[in-house]
Specification:
The protein has helices at residues 3-82, 91-173; strands at 190-191, 197-198. It has 199 residues and is an all-alpha fold. It has a two-stranded antiparallel sheet with strand order 1-2.
């Protein structure tokens, strides 16, 4: 079998294997990035839901506190009337006012704590969204790098085959007698005009 065709075939096969490897590697990197992006998106959804739940729970607790406060004001009024006092003036009014103020303050504190908790979850959601964007970009970069590596492997393989062809043609042209390429002074094997390897 002509030596040139063996060498050229090996170069083509090597190029194909290298290109396939680059493609598989790019696909694997992209798939991993897509998985990471999906995990980040899930984390974002969970954090947003937790933020909403924290806000809702805080509002329910605040409303419950306001209802408790209103009930306490009613007890103050009833106690004042049961003791023969006018619940609309004097100490009973002061007690009702203080109870209302403290109850409102407690409700505001509950809402504020819920808002802080919700804000923490919103920060987590924002971070997860950023991680998702980075993962998607990494996947796209992996695909682009894979394409570039495949193209580079193709050019390298084509250059190798071209170099072998040029060398083969030069060797044949330098020995137009048809007797093949002679063994060099070091006794290295040669290729004849038909491309057969001679030992």
């Amino acid at each position: 079998m002509p030596f040139f065709w063996v060498a050229a075939g090996a170069a083509v096969i090597g190029t194909g294997v290298s290109m396939y490897g680059a493609s598989v590697q790019a696909d694997a990197a992209n798939n991993q990035a897509q998985y990471q992006a999906q995990v980040a998106q899930n984390n974002q959804i969970i954090a947003n839901r937790q933020a909403t739940a924290a806000t809702q729970a805080g509002e329910i607790q605040a409303q419950t506190k306001l209802l408790q406060t209103a009930a306490m004001e009613g007890k103050v009024r009833a106690a004042a009337a049961a003791n023969g006092l006018d619940p609309n003036q004097g100490t009973p009014v002061d007690l009702q006012s203080d109870t209302a103020k403290l109850g409102t303050l407690d409700a505001l504190t509950i809402r504020n704590n819920a808002a802080r908790t919700a804000y923490g979850y919103q920060i987590q959601a924002g971070n997860a969204q950023g991680q998702q964007g980075l993962a998607l970009a990494a996947g796209q970069n992996a695909e682009s790098a894979g394409s570039l590596n495949m193209f580079s492997d193709f050019l390298s393989g084509a250059s190798s085959v071209s170099s072998k062809w040029s060398s083969y043609k030069t060797n044949i042209a330098s020995n137009p007698t048809g007797s093949g390429i002679s063994t060099n002074s070091a006794g290295v094997s040669t290729i004849d005009e038909a491309g057969n390897f001679n030992v």
